[in-house]
Amino acid sequence: MGLPVRKNRTAPPPPTCALGECMNLLRPAWAANVVWYLGAAPRRFGELRRDLPSISARVLSARLRTLESQGVVERRAIDTSPPTSEYLLTDLGRELIPALRTIVAVGEQLKQRPPARPARHSR
Amino acid sequence: MGLPVRKNRTAPPPPTCALGECMNLLRPAWAANVVWYLGAAPRRFGELRRDLPSISARVLSARLRTLESQGVVERRAIDTSPPTSEYLLTDLGRELIPALRTIVAVGEQLKQRPPARPARHSR
DNA sequence: CTGAATCCAGTCGGATACTG
DNA sequence: CAGTATCCGACTGGATTCAG
After folding, report:
1. Distances (CA, A) of A30 to B14, B30, B49, B74, B78
2. B42 to A35, A64, B56: CA distances (angstroms)
3. What is the distance between the alpha carbons of residues A23 and A87, in angstroms, rounded to a whole number?
């Protein structure tokens, strides 16, 4: 995972900047959406599946585990019958919400823009 | 491009939310970095290549064209000899900078965190 | 319900070579 | 310098199946 790395690099690897660190978390499909929905309220696995109608269980599971391992999401096993679990953002994870809010705002404008022209050069 | 779409969906497609719209722009490799560097100052193609030491010309070119087509980046041909060009953020593109700043802040903390444990469940 | 495992098609992006 | 074209391996993520 992570930014693709050149194999035949003749120069030392670039100083992995902090922007890439965090984008690596948000890049995979649905990752940002999962954080976004967890920002609204703690949620269980099945709830997230309904929030994100077309996500597959495999991917949701993978996202949650990665986000958890990075300290963005916390999982709480609830000892009921049958056993359930819920996920919530950590303090670190909550820091992402304002950023995502801004990104949503840009997204809104993108949706209302004239259809994107191809933008070719020097033809 | 865009979020993967299920083929065998029995329910109507989810309302493509604005978060996904914008993340689609930032998701491809180096895209956020390109915006970030352009936020600091207008830059030429070659300058960006030096800013992002391990990006390939092919990918940089592709990112710039996509960002331009979406109205986030503007290209200005400078009629010198030899002809050069420079890229800069549009007003819309500049809206992303505060968001990226927040993301960088989270990235800083991620770098200083204890090494991510695998996080497997119910073993 | 909450996941994990397997399979596999489609995409992404690096390497390389070439043009104006 | 500022890109574009082609080739191709690696990775992503959907579908499906199975388990606790």
Report:
1. 13, 19, 29, 29, 40
2. 32, 38, 20
3. 21
Dist. CA B93–CA B72, nearest whole Å? 4
Tokens of B110: 């991620």
B17-35 per-position pLDDT tens digit: 899 999 999 999 999 999 9
3-state secondary structure (DSSP) of residue B56: coil
Q: How many CB pairs under 8 A join A and B?
A: 166
pTM here? Answer: 0.88
- β partners of residue B75: B87
Tokens of A99: 């950023």
How many Å does it take to go from CA A64 to C1' D11?
19
Q: Per DSSP, what are the bridge partners of residue B105?
A: none
Closest CB to A9: pick one of B54, B68, B113.
B54
Closest residue, CA to C1' of C10: B4
Amino acid symbol at B82: P
For residue A123, CA distances in Å to A119, A120, B57, B68, B114 come to 10, 7, 19, 16, 51
Measured between beta carbons, the chain A residues lying within 8 angstroms of B13 are 53-54
- Strand C nucleotides, any atom under 7 Å to a protein CB: 1-6, 11-17, 20
